[in-house]
Amino acid sequence: MTQPEPIDPAAAVGLGREFATALVVFHEAVGRLLGLSAVERKCIDLLKQLGPVTAGAIGERTGLTTGAVTRLIDRLGKAGYVERVPDPDDRRKVVVRLLPNERMDALMASAFIPFGEDLAKVMANYTEAETRVILDWVHRTTEVLVANTRRIEHQQH
């Protein structure tokens, strides 16, 4: 049985950079469909996942500073995607709620349904064990990205 070739660290970094660039460019393109930046679009995605949350929760999940989150919510509110409302559990707090938007839903579907179908085809090439490793990598890499986003944001202030 032959051993697999060792992974070239420089090639791995290059592939990671290529992947990250493709991911950011894809999300920028989806954002442009909605008239938003990638960060604004991802904030909408976050609100779809979590439901109404405080600005602080958005900051915790994105790694953005309080000021950056406030400006982000202001832009999304002005564009008609979100609104600030009293927290139903604690009326002293305000939460950010995603507004219904059929146009946004249709544009998101036009971008993500084909993307999801293509990813399903890619994942069909892997065994269950390989898929678990891939998902573990995605999970761990996401944690590293969030932590480093927070680190960089805090360096700026």
From TrEMBL:
Keywords: DNA-binding. PROSITE patterns: HTH_MARR_2. Residues 1-143 form the HTH marR-type domain. InterPro entries: ArsR-like_HTH, HTH_MarR-typ, MarR/SlyA-like, WH-like_DNA-bd_sf, WH_DNA-bd_sf. SUPFAM superfamilies: Winged helix' DNA-binding domain. One of its GO terms (biological process) is response to stress. It comes from the Bacteria. One of its GO terms (molecular function) is DNA-binding transcription factor activity. Coiled coil: none annotated. This is DNA-binding MarR family transcriptional regulator.
